[in-house]
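CO-FOLDING WORKSHEET

Operator: S.A.
Ligand of interest: S-adenosylmethionine
Run index: 228
Mode: holo prediction, single chain
Checklist:
[x] sequence pasted
[x] SMILES validated
[ ] output reviewed
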Amino acid sequence: MVELVRHPDFDNVYWAAFEGKGRKLVTKSLAPGFKVFVDEWTFEHKGSEFRMWDPYRSKLAAAIMKGLKRFPLRRGDRVLYLGAASGTTASFVSDIVDAEGKVFCVEISSRPLRDLLQVCSKRSNMLPILADAGDPCAYAPLVSSADVVYQDIAQPDQVDIFLKNVRIFLREGGYGVLAVKARAIDVSKRPCEIFSEELERLQRELDVLDTKILDPYERDHAMFIVRK
Ligand SMILES: C[S@@+](CC[C@H](N)C(=O)[O-])C[C@H]1O[C@@H](n2cnc3c(N)ncnc32)[C@H](O)[C@@H]1O
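OUTPUT RECEIVED:
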């Protein structure tokens, strides 16, 4: 027996309470019957399929579990997703923005792109793009503008790449979501030192609405929610 309640503040996100198992974060699947990863856990409720959103697999789910106050995604949003990998988190973003929205999935590596192509083939609102997020001109004709820029790439210049994309694609008043991996920037510094340096850089040109340290779900990662 499962009890399902809408998240009070976040569009298209639900809590599912299971007897004896506590509550789990879930989304309503836009592609019922298709699993994005092999051991994905789904269940039926009142004729719809729901998918468990595991905070150990998705940094956005981890940020919600850590008490994220401002959730930037809404039904119908156009999302530029940088570092889509095989499409795990991007598929949950696809559930949230729903059929009226669009998720432009940029991935540099052809290996995860093969799986990403499969995921996108089942979801009409996801578009795979093989490109370097550091070279936004390569995909500018496809994307034009975005309500949300989401980035999760572990590169030393990850904040520069994010700001470059935000300047070009994010509409005024739009939101940015940036996952920062401290160890990709500098292994010799403590993660908290790196997070405060990067926060300062973001604050120079954006409003920083929320910051969440993602431990214990993702070690040495932080997530920043910004507004242009
Ligand atoms: C941590 S994984 C992303 C996981 C994914 N966001 C998820 O939660 O399902 C980082 C991905 O970023 C990609 N990446 C790294 N540098 C990139 C770049 N410059 N442009 C686009 N993708 C990049 C990597 O190939 C890798 O697949």
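REVIEW:
Residues 58-59, 82-83, 85, 88-89, 106-109, 112, 132-134, 152-155 surround S-adenosylmethionine (CB under 6 Å).
The helical segments are 59-65, 88-97, 110-122, 140-143, 158-169, 182-185, 191-203.
[x] output reviewed
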